[in-house]
From TrEMBL:
InterPro entries: Methyltransf_11 (IPR013216), SAM-dependent_MTases_sf (IPR029063). This is SAM-dependent methyltransferase. One of its GO terms (biological process) is methylation. The keyword Methyltransferase applies.
Length: 262
């Protein structure tokens, strides 16, 4: 059962509070977008579930966006369609209505993963794409040394690949998604070689896992990170990442090709 916050957010994070600067830091990265666009194939109609401010929505296709948070819907740029106020678990569309469907950085917000994925599969004839993180790999990122409660929260929230497979009721393709050094989409791992970005309040608030620790705890984490950046200890441990062209972390594109008969 979905729990709706005041602004309509249906997950465990209240985007009416944390999402106000989201579109400033969470811009779609064109290299990630190209992989998603390629995976959509020749689909003419696309459903975007948990669409947020519209990141990664292709502009060369007919996109229908679904987003329960009023704050996030309000941040959608004018060139994108107006998002429908609905949740993944109850999509207001007939069976096999869309050529393809997608959801980026959203399934960890869903109260009922199996129902949401089942609904996406029901209304889609072709591929369903999910951009998500593997919880088994989240805490391997260097930020875990500085903000362990943040990354342990992320690891708990992201569903396993086995749970995603079960939700679709069919086999899935799991494709690693390389993260470029100058990634425009500001999730935690996007700053793998730019640790200074995580000193910015807006950058952290645009990663929902930071909202699950108290301001006092977050301040302690950031104070230590700032100190180690300034005195050179971060670079002693991780400095080679500053020039590493891409990073293979916990980010994956999961593709459900559909069940027999779709």
């Amino acid at each position: 059962m979905s729990v709706r916050h005041i602004d309509g957010s249906a997950g465990d994070a209240n985007y009416g509070t944390i999402g106000k600067s989201y579109s400033s830091y969470r811009q779609p990265d064109p290299r990630i977008a190209a992989v998603i666009n390629d995976a959509l194939g020749n689909a003419g109609t696309v459903l975007n579930v948990g669409a947020g401010a519209g990141s990664y929505e292709p502009t060369n296709r007919d996109v229908t966006a679904v987003e329960p948070s009023a704050s996030m819907r309000a941040q959608r740029p004018a060139h994108l369609s107006v998002a429908i106020d609905a949740v993944a678990e109850n999509l207001p569309f007939p069976d096999k209505h869309f050529d393809a469907a997608m959801g980026t950085f959203t399934i960890h917000q869903w109260p009922d993963l199996k129902a949401g994925l089942g609904e996406m599969r029901r209304v889609t004839r072709g591929p369903v794409l999910i951009l998500t993180c593997d919880p088994n790999e989240v805490q391997s990122f260097w930020l875990n040394d500085y903000a362990p409660d943040v990354l342990s929260t992320e690891a708990r929230r992201y569903p396993s690949m086995a749970a995603i497979r079960e939700g679709f009721g069919a086999e899935i393709d799991i494709l690693p998604m390389p993260i470029p050094l100058d990634c425009r989409d500001g999730f935690n791992e996007a700053y793998y070689g730019r640790p200074e970005m995580l000193l910015e309040d807006g950058a952290r608030l645009s990663c929902s896992a930071w909202s699950f620790v108290t301001p006092e705890v977050a301040k302690g984490y950031i104070d230590r990170l700032r100190t180690e950046i300034e005195d050179g200890r971060w670079d002693e441990k991780y400095g080679e990442l500053r020039t590493q062209p891409e990073f293979h972390g916990s980010l994956y594109l999961v593709i459900s090709r559909g069940m027999t008969g779709n």
